[in-house]
Amino acid sequence: MVTISVCVGSSCHLKGAYDIIRVCEEMIERLGLKDKVELKGTFCLGQCTEEGVTVVIEGETLHGVSAENFEKVFAEKVLQKLTEENRGNN
Amino acid sequence: MNELFVEFAYAQIPKWGEELCGDSVSYDRTRDFTIFSWSDGLGSGVKANILSTLTSRIIVSMLRKNSPLEEVIETLVETLPVCKVRKIAYSTFSVVQVASNGEAYVAEFDNPPIFWVRNNRVMHLERHKHEVGKKVVLDFNMRLQKNDWIVGITDGVVHAGIGGLWNLGWRWEKIASFLESTVNEHMDAKTLAQKIIDTTRKLYQDHVGDDATCVVAKIRLPRRLLLWAGPPEDPAQDERIVERVMTFPGKKVVSGGTTGNILARVLKKEIRVDLNSLAQDVPPVGMLEGVDLLTEGILTLAAVLKRLRKLQSGEETIRGQDGASRLLRLLLEADEIVIIGGRAINPAHQNPKLSGELSLKARILEEISEELQRRGKMVTLEYY
Asked: Cα separation of B191 and B179, whole Å?
């Protein structure tokens, strides 16, 4: 299980948190990862002055996330972690 | 804080063919009491409307300043314009003044007697004659308690259906029985006033013979709400404010990400974000045990203000599950609202790229409280 927390505070909302959540929901659905990825929102993480939206994936805080680059972030961070988990299980 | 709250509403219908109702209702509320007055002007249409508006407004504004009744009536006699046709200046009135402890004063002049409903019974009232100049005013004091109702009507209601469905009209006694079988604890003042006026219209078979007005005061406990929006300037105050919020006797709302995080930290609880409340223009709400609502701050508050401004009276039913709709719904349901604003500066709000949207939160809170006061809410705004 991989947990993605998207900041939904004021700044991140203005910088596109809403769109990221939509894109993420759509990807989880499309890739059939409902049981493997948990999408959560989180209140302000105090990273407001950083670029882009703040997203935390398995404890790792990422800045500068946007709806445009989210697919890439998802592939690099989430899919990779899932692959690692799978290997570990085998 | 007030002990009892007077929920006030009225409904009216003008005489058939008239645009304006010749009856007028005035209402005012201060920290110590609620006062309302209704008046039936001589004749109908615009002339009656002016007479009754002057009457009810003068009464409310003078009694509010504690002027004695004699003085109020003298002022009325001297102020009301004299009707050219009838050569008199005339308008009936009733006035009810209720203190927050339930003590009430009522004065009546030529209006049908008020109804006092308690435990689904219309109670008897001992009225005193009070001569002021040539006019005889009936007045009395009473002690109201929770779940009491005061219902006032003008003679257009008493006469409903006269010579038609009823030989003698609806009549005071029958209206009293109607109230006894209709009033219940879960009904609000507006619904009851509207029921009386709807029935009046039916009895007149839509051909309303006289201006008809029904005013209703429901005595109940006030619905209180505390809105905490923004961390205090001095972080040492955090715990004190959290305690104030958690022990508040009423609904508790926290608005702001950092504010919510302070609350969660002090209470050692976790905020869960409800992604189902996601909306394009308003960030989602959070859930935290012990508070009724937890929202994002500035954007949600700005949306609440924008919607409040657009809201017409009468369309107070807010649908929608986003943070702003939920907050607005709670604010409109409340009678007494305490808003705690924080003076701490959010560094993120200093970002010039965002400054358009993230304008001063204090300004928004002030405007929200002004809008709520305009809607008859008691609002206290405090800053830390």
From this structure: 12
Residues of A with CB below 8 A from B348's CB? Answer: 9-11, 48-49
Tens digit of each residue's pLDDT (9 = 90 or more) over B328-367: 999 999 999 999 998 777 766 666 555 554 557 888 999 9
CATH code: domain of residue A43: 3.40.30.10
Asked if A17 reaches chain B (Cβ–Cβ under 8 Å), the answer is yes
| DSSP code per residue over A4-67 | EEEE-SHHHHHTTHHHHHHHHHHHHHHTT-TTTEEEEEES--S-TTSSSEEEEETTEEEEEE-T
Please name which of B190, B249, B254 lies closest in space to residue B222, comparing C-alpha atoms.
B249
How high is the pLDDT of residue B1? 43
pLDDT tens per residue across span B2-40: 589 999 999 999 999 888 999 999 999 887 889 999 999
A39 touching chain B per CB within 8 A: yes
Query: Which residue in A13, A40, A48 is closest to B296 by CB distance?
Result: A13
Which of A21, A46, A49 is closest, CB to CB, to B351? A49
E strands in B179-318: 212-220, 224-229, 251-255, 272-274, 285-287, 293-295
Q: Is A32 left (phi over 0), alpha (psi -120 to 50) or beta?
A: left
- How many domains are there within chain A? 1
- The SS3 of residue B204 is coil
Q: Which residues pair with B303 in a beta bridge?
A: none
| Residue showing tokens 């009904």 | B187
Q: Let me know: does B88 contact B96? Beta carbons within 8 Å.
A: no
Boundaries of domain holding A79: 2-89
Which phi and psi (to 5°) does residue B363 adopt? -60, -45
Chain B contact present for A24, CB below 8 A: no
ipTM above 0.90, yes or no: no
Cα distance between residue B163 and residue B205, in whole Å: 12
Stated pTM of the model: 0.73
Distance from CA of A81 to the nearest CA of B (A): 24
Q: Which DSSP helix (H) or strand (E) runs through B369?
A: helix B361-374
Domains of chain B: 5-220 (3.60.40.10), 224-383 (no CATH)
Residue A59 has pLDDT above 80, yes or no: yes
Q: Which of B190, B176, B105, B186 is nearest to B142 (CA)?
A: B105
Distance (Å, whole) CA B41 – CA B52: 4
| Chain B residue nearest residue A42, CA to CA | B273
**Distance from C-alpha of A65 to C-alpha of A87, rounded to nearest angstrom:** 28
Tokens describing residue B264: 């969660």
Report the share of chain B in percent with pLDDT over 70: 93
